[in-house]
Every structure is written in C-alpha cells, then in structure tokens.
Amino acid sequence: MAGRGVEEHPHGADRLCRAGDRVYSRAVRRGRVPRRDAEPVPCLLELALLHPDPDDMDWLVPTSPQEVMTRLLRGMYDEVSASQRRVGSAVEAVEWYAGLGRQVPPAASGTEGPAIRVLDGLARIQAAMDEATQACTTEVLTVQPGGIRREAELSEGLHRALALRGRGVRMRDLYTHVARHGQGLLTYLELMGHAVEARTLDEVIDRLILFDRTVAFIPANTDRTMALELRHPAIVEYLVTVFERLWRLAIPLTAPLPDTGIEGISHREQSIAALLAEGHQDAVIAERLGISVRTCRAHIARLSETLGAASRTQLGVRIAQAGLDGPPSSGTAVRVPGQGSPSVR
Q1: Are residues 249 and 76 in contact, defined by beta-carbon separation less than 8 angstroms?
Q2: What angle do CA 319, 202, 256 make, to 5 degrees?
Q3: 3-state secondary structure (DSSP) of residue 240
Q4: How many CA atoms, within 13 angstroms, populate the side-chain half-sphere of residue 124?
Q5: pTM here?
Q6: Which residue from 76, 84, 13 is spatially nearest to 250, judged by alpha carbons?
Q7: What's the Rg (C-alpha) of the chain?
Q8: What is the pLDDT of residues 92-137, one digit of tens each?
C-alpha cells in the first residue's frame, strides 16, 4: 500500500490532494478517523499526517496542524540555508577561476564578450551596468542585502530603473524584512508602479543583479569597489535558480509579516533567537539581518527579559525550551518559560 500511495499521490504535505484534505480535516475535527477511511488516501500515512491510535489500531489519529506547519517551515528554512551556502561556494569558485583567467589568454567563445569579467572601480561597474540596462528587453532580477535602503543607494540606480520601466521591462527585487521600514524604498516602489514587484526575507544572499537571464553582476570584494560581470550560461542559470527559490519563499512587500504566535516576541527577535542558537556572534547576526549591532543587542536584551534569562548561557537554554532554536514559524502556540500558558496572537 505504501508504494501505491507514493505513486498515486505524488505530492507533499504542502499541497494535499482533495481526498487527503477531506480525510485529514475530518481527523483533526473529530480527533481520529477509522483506518478504513484512510485506505483511499495512503499519502496521509506516507506523509505522517495520520498514524495509528495506540489504544485502538483500527483508528488513526492526526498529527497536529501546528506540528505540520513547523515541519514545513523548517524544511523551507533548510532549503534557503542550503541555497545560500551553495551561492557562497559558487562565488568563491568564480573568484578563484577569475584569478586563473588572468594568467592565460582567453579562449575563443561563441558568447558576446568574456564569460567572466572583473570590473575594478565604481566607474567601470556603473558603465557596465548602464550597458546591460540598455541591452535589457525583458526582465531584471535583483537581490539587495542590508537593511533600510539609503536614499543615495536608491537614487544611484533610479535612472536605469526608469529607463527599464519605459521599455516595459519587468523587475523583481528581494530585500530583507528590515527594508520594509525605509520610507525611501516605499517612495521608490510607488514611483515605479507595477513595473517593480518586491518581496522580503529574514536574510538574503549578497547583492545580485541579473539582466534578461544572460548577464549577472555580483560583488568581488567586501566594500563593493570591484564586481564580477558573469555571462557564462551555466553560472547565470545557477544564479537564476537561486533567485527563484528565494523568491518563492519570500513574503510580498504588500503583505504583513507572519505573526510569531509568541506573546512579547517579534518576528525579528524570533529570527535573532534562531541565529543565536546556531552560535553566531552579535555582529554576524546584525549583518545577516540587515540591522545595526546596537539594534541587534537591544532585541537580544528584550529576548532575555521576555524569556526570563539572566545570562547569555541561560538565554540559550530558554531559547531551546521555547522552541525558538528553529526557523521562524507562524501561528504556533509556544510556552514561554516563566509564563503560565501558551499565548497566540
């Protein structure tokens, strides 16, 4: 039966078939369902959404929706983390190969220009970006790390964005959640209208700009005074895949952030707690979430107060006890140490 279930119901817990939806919903409402009711939908057992009632093996009891949500969100978090690690490895490899490329004459290729070009200096970077903008006809994908976007940063590329909008080019931008609080970004998006769609994540990869899925620009050093212009089809396609996966997991800027379901702990503080549990220092956490170290420490202080922790060591224990050592989840009631009962907002 297990084999037939996988073959006839090729889906995961994030997209149940109609029959599975009906049986699982009934099980949640009633607390259990007869085993025979689940025979047409073996996917529920395969996905561990139903399991035998230890008191009566002829009945099946459901896994709680909160546990299923946590499982799905953890899977998405792991997928994003894996993508970010792969991008980091790819950038390191690109830089290494770029260094080797300077030692030998470039081989002839059928692509326009070199597959990898190092742009040294802001003037060369701007010129290459302007050239790519002029040639772009369909789509621009960007990842913008850091926190609130400064007016100067937005003004720097405004002329390119307006030129793209004038030609009907579609633009999609990824930011961190912190960027939502910047009035400059909101003004920019209002100016661009429907030409730009923006989404946000807790943390994103380093800066990335893709034109027509044929040329990409990424930083080549930490202060972004050097960049790599990439035209190798395999590298560009890889970066497009990373962007699309992050885009699927991101939250539209027009939609609110999911509630943590934990009284007194914000979505950002839940993200900080998860990174603290991974062992990261304050400065690293601040950089990944796009906030200042001072702001990060203020959130950590509020976390300590809410969880009743008197030291960093105790805070780590309380984070684990409260279930905050995993990815941020939505709508799950969590008991906070020192409080009487779970609270869901």
Answers
A1: yes
A2: 105
A3: helix
A4: 13
A5: 0.55
A6: 76
A7: 24
A8: 777 777 777 666 555 444 445 578 899 999 899 999 999 999 999 9
CB 228 within 8 A of CB 94: yes
Contact 155, 215 (CB under 8 A): no
Tokens of 259: 């509630």
pLDDT tens-digit series, residues 132-181: 999 999 999 999 887 776 666 666 677 788 889 999 999 999 988 888 87
CA–CA dist 157, 229 (Å, integer):
17
Could you give the CA distance from residue 283 to residue 18 in angstroms, rounded to a whole number? Answer: 47
Please compute, for residue 123, the number of CA atoms within 13 A of its CA located in the half-sphere on the CB side: 0
Q: For the CA atoms of 267, 271, 276, 280, what is the dihedral angle to 10 degrees? A: -140
Alpha-carbon gap, residue 217 to 130, rounded angstroms: 12
Going by their DSSP bridges, the two strands 56-62 and 33-34 should be labelled as antiparallel
Torsion of CA 24, 334, 204, 188, to 10 degrees: 90
